[in-house]
């Protein structure tokens, strides 16, 4: 017993508490840490209603404003599929990309406001904390993606349960990889302002070089190479494949808008593409753990 | 030696602990032991090496020399064991301001692996102790500075640490709130079987400790109980404001054989029986005296006696050496 009768006890019926004995650590303890860090991300996300709404603005602008505006140029070229429908899966990826990056960046806030230290001094592995943060970022990003997906009907994409489920899994994966990548960057950044600038600088090229806004057909060689190097491409293409599998598209439209992603002429299977995204995420996660281990 | 400490002979045991940052030696080989149940204070000006020492004891800063055992565990080789056995309250808040008090507590409990069946009662107990149980469902960003600090103390205690580290627990708080924080610390000493290790640069706060180590420029100058330290000084401190300080200092030396110097804008010296000395001073000093202040020996005087400087002088000169505490900088990373 650590306590004698507390002088200030307001509730005499409250039982005395024995000295807390902490377990020796180990896998179960690390798992609890992963879970609670994830939970905190969920709580913070649910509190941030404004963020959920503002995150809808960008996709709406892309699909309904840019998509509609450019349609007049591309009329005829996209066959029986509208440009807005073509852009929709890309914009899902954009939502995930920005939301996940924003989640990762929040660790810079945590550092500025001191909460990061509360996490880093705990008797758990750093990898547990980083993993919790990554899974939190992935979940938040996927939820945000699902919110954007609610607009599907407006661009003639049906609400097929299988399609929604597949997209959700793919968005979760993309969210995980992007959060891990964001954490690698955030590990060395001490101030939010610097982080915001850096984020813009990194997000824009990732976005433009991933086939979010244009098909991967007939690109000049240099652009084709850059697009194939960008891991985001391997998440965008599967998203588009799923959407195209659930809409009515003529063979010509598919050939123009959703040509296969190839490596030296070999069409890369979807699972391999997703494996590329997952592997990239694991590497970033590993680097992020090393970075946060080094920094204390 | 080590076995003895594991049996609870010392809560903290430090030998030749040292920390350098390049050419800068922040802590130059300190030795001390803190007994279980003791409240031990590290007193010194900003930049004296207090926070760096606490950082090493908390496994946040890697020592460059010497060794330290906390709750019987080596701070370098058994970091996890040390962390399980300590509670930490930092100078800057480490709460999530957007979570409620209870959510912050639960986060901590999960991270530290507090058994779930005991958590509810334990949380009630520690929140009650700091008077925040009724506010547990409020978001922390609605709390005052003093409430946040109390919540951090409660959170630091949640997992029943054997040693609670309080790094400047009252810094940045108004005097009334500071007093209330001390009241809570005294209460927790009554209720919990715990060793408290704290740092402060407020002289008056050091009196709350069982023993004090005065640290200046990275080294321990003296270590004893507040009473013993004050007794060792013996003399009263006299500060006079005069029309001509250099002449006053010269006359004090020539007529009374007293060494005086200017601190905080006043001629300052120590003398036995200060109150009886004042009438003589007025009668015999050839310089007009504008005001007199006699004080019983305080820890300020102890600091002055052992370091030759007042704590405010020391802070003025050390702020150039350590513009920011290296621990603060390191831990923020």
Tell me what you see in this structure:
The complex is a heterodimer of chains A (296) and B (333). Helix content of chain A is 69%, strand content 1%. Chain A is built from eleven helices and two strands. Chain A has a two-stranded antiparallel sheet with strand order 1-2. In chain A, strand 1 and strand 2 form a beta hairpin. In chain A, helix 3 runs antiparallel to helix 5 and helix 3 packs antiparallel against helix 7. The radius of gyration of chain A is 23 Å and the shape is elongated. Chain B contains 14 helices and 14 strands. Classes of the chains: A mainly alpha (296), B alpha/beta (333). At the A-B interface, helix 1 and helix 4 of A face helix 3, helix 4, helix 5, helix 7 and helix 14 of B.
Morphology of chain A? elongated
The tally of helices of chain B reads 14
Percent helix among the residues of chain A? 55-70%
Biggest interface pair, counts: A-B, 44 and 49 residues
Order of strands in the sheet with the most strands of chain B?
6-7-8-3-9-10
Helix and strand element order of chain A: HHHHHHHHHHEEH
Give average pLDDT of chain A, whole number: 88
């Amino acid at each position: 017993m650590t306590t004698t009768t507390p002088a200030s006890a307001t509730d005499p019926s409250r039982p005395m508490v024995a000295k807390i004995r902490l377990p020796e650590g180990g896998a179960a303890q690390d798992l609890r840490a992963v879970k609670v860090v994830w939970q905190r991300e969920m709580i913070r996300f649910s509190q941030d209603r404004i963020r959920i709404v503002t995150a809808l603005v960008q996709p709406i602008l892309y699909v309904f404003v840019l998509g509609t505006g450019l349609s007049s140029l591309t009329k005829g070229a996209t066959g029986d599929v509208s440009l807005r429908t073509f852009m929709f899966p890309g914009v899902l990826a954009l939502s995930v990309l920005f939301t996940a990056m924003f989640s990762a960046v929040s660790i810079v806030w945590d550092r500025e406001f001191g909460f990061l230290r509360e996490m880093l001094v705990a008797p758990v592995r750093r990898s547990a904390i980083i993993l919790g943060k990554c899974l939190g970022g992935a979940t938040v990003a996927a939820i945000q993606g699902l919110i954007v997906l609610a607009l599907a009907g407006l661009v003639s994409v049906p609400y097929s349960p299988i399609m929604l489920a597949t997209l959700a899994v793919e968005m979760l994966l993309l969210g995980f990889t992007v959060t891990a990548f964001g954490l690698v960057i955030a590990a060395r950044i001490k101030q939010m302002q610097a982080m915001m600038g850096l984020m813009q600088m990194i997000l824009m090229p990732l976005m433009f070089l991933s086939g979010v806004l244009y098909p991967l057909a007939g690109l000049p060689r240099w652009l084709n190479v850059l697009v194939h190097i960008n891991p985001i491409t391997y998440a965008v293409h599967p998203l588009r494949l799923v959407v195209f599998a659930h809409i009515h598209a003529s063979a010509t439209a598919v050939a123009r808008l959703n040509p296969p992603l190839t490596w030296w002429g070999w069409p890369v299977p979807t699972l391999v593409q997703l494996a590329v995204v997952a592997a990239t995420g694991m590497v970033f996660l590993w680097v992020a753990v090393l970075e946060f281990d080094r920094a204390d | 030696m080590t076995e003895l400490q594991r049996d609870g002979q010392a809560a903290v045991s430090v030998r030749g602990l040292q920390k350098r940052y390049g050419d800068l030696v922040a802590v130059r080989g300190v030795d001390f032991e803190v007994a279980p149940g003791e409240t031990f204070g590290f007193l010194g000006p900003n930049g004296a090496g207090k926070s760096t020492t606490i950082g090493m004891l908390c496994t946040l800063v890697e020592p460059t020399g010497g060794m330290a055992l906390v709750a019987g565990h080596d701070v370098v080789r058994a970091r996890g064991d040390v962390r399980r056995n300590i509670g930490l309250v930092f100078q800057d808040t480490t709460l999530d301001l957007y979570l409620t008090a209870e959510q912050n507590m639960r986060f901590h409990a999960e991270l530290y692996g507090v058994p779930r069946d005991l958590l509810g009662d334990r949380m009630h107990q520690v929140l009650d102790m700091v008077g925040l149980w009724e506010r547990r469902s409020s978001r922390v960003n609605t709390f005052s500075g003093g409430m946040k600090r109390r919540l951090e103390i409660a959170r630091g205690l949640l997992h029943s640490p054997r040693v609670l580290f309080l790094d400047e627990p009252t810094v940045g708080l108004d005097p009334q709130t500071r007093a209330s924080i001390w009241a809570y610390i005294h209460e927790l000493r009554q209720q919990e079987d715990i060793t408290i290790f704290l740092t402060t640069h407020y002289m008056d706060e050091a009196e709350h400790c069982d023993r004090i180590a005065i640290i200046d420029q990275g080294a321990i100058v003296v270590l004893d109980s507040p009473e013993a330290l004050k007794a060792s000084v013996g003399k009263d401190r006299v500060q006079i404001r005069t029309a001509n300080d250099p002449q006053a200092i010269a006359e004090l030396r020539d007529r009374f054989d007293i060494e005086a110097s200017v601190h905080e804008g006043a001629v300052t010296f120590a003398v036995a029986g200060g109150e009886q000395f004042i009438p003589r001073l007025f009668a015999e000093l050839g310089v007009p005296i504008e005001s007199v202040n006699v004080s019983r020996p305080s820890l300020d005087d102890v600091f002055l006696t052992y370091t030759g400087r007042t704590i405010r002088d020391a802070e003025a000169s050390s702020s150039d050496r350590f513009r920011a505490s290296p621990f603060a900088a390191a831990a923020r990373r």
